[in-house]
Predict the structure.
Amino acid sequence: MNIMMILKRSSFVLSAVLLTALIFPSCKSEYEALINSNDVEKQYAAAFQYFNAGKFQKAATLFQNMSVLTNGTSRDDTVQFYWGLSNYRYKDYYTAETNFTNFLQNYPRSPFADEASFLRIDCLYRSTLRYELDQTPTYNAMNAISQYLIENPNTSHRAICRQMLKELNDRLDKKAFENAKLYYKMEQYKASRVAFRNILKDDSENIYREDILYYIAMSSYKYAQLSVEAKQRERYLTFIDDYYNFIGENPDSPYKRELDVLYRRSQRALGYYSGADEELNEKEKDFIRERRKLLKQSPDSTSYNQ
């Protein structure tokens, strides 16, 4: 291709671009025009059209823009509330919670105030994290929900709030239980026993109480078993105390047969049991079979699982 042909093609392309620019001048979309407009009536109507159509992100942007224009007018609380509600429906719970908090500070007597109060705590609830992660948001949500119930004793949302509190508290119970269980898995049995006992010291109603008492007993038994001979007696006696604590609360637990065998082994180590090893071994096989049967019946159960 020679130089003249290249120049002709370049000239043709440039002409086409200029022609397109003349025929189709740059223009903004209707939505962009609304955002940049000061026409409150158009923005107000369009914002609700987007909201009712389920386009919550666009609605939120329009309500946000309008909040400056409607400040101090009769529409301000409506715009502020629907700004938060649009973010809530868009599942931007962090921004929505900030919206509702500001709304309640500015318009505590608005007709939307009751709903905004509940939606605010719902945002906090939905912003909490899995039990493995930082639980600061969980504590914040529980405090806010409890305060909401105190301030609104007759709320129609009471049952939902109670369920929220239960779920969040169960999550904290699970985190505490799993954290203590890590020591057991790492075979740090002394630390394991201390950690499990501390759970019940801080929260005696932990939903994993049966499992916790089981692991306390197992930790003390294994700690005694691995101790030097001079300290075994004292530590087997500690296990026996833990065994009685467990049996006293859970006489029908599937863990019982396993702990019964360990109790007899401890008795034997202390010189109190005269049965044969074969008998102990057979009892141990029995509870293993029974546990496997239970696990097959309820494979999703969190209990009875080491």
The first helix runs from residue 3 to 23. The chain has two domains: 30-171, 187-297. The mean pLDDT is 86.
